[in-house]
Design a protein that fits this description.
There is one protein chain. Helix content is 72%, strand content 0%. The chain contains four helices and no strands. The longest helix has 26 residues, at 9-34. It is globular and about 45 Å long.
Length: 110
Amino acid sequence: YIGFPLNNLMHFVSATSLVCVIPTSISSFYQFNRRKLVEWPMVKIITPGMIFGVIIGVTSASMMKSRYLEIFLSFLLIFIALRFFIPQKNTFRNKELSFWLVALVSFFIG
């Protein structure tokens, strides 16, 4: 494992993936904003939930043993992968989203 301590290995794995995701997300956000495709009122609603979710997630992950973090992330990835095989309907088209639904989803995104 290239000299990484085994008891923190999953923490390194998670951090490595975030190092890839964060710059890509910032770049995408910048490009969408340049094309005036960012809905700023929605950004203002989801940002606090995402920040709170990040704080809770980082705190929880830092307290977890690497093995439990591995199990949790494995189930999360399996759940996400299975959703690709289940047909989804876009039921939110032309509907107003509840503030609390958006806040809750943004928390879990964070």
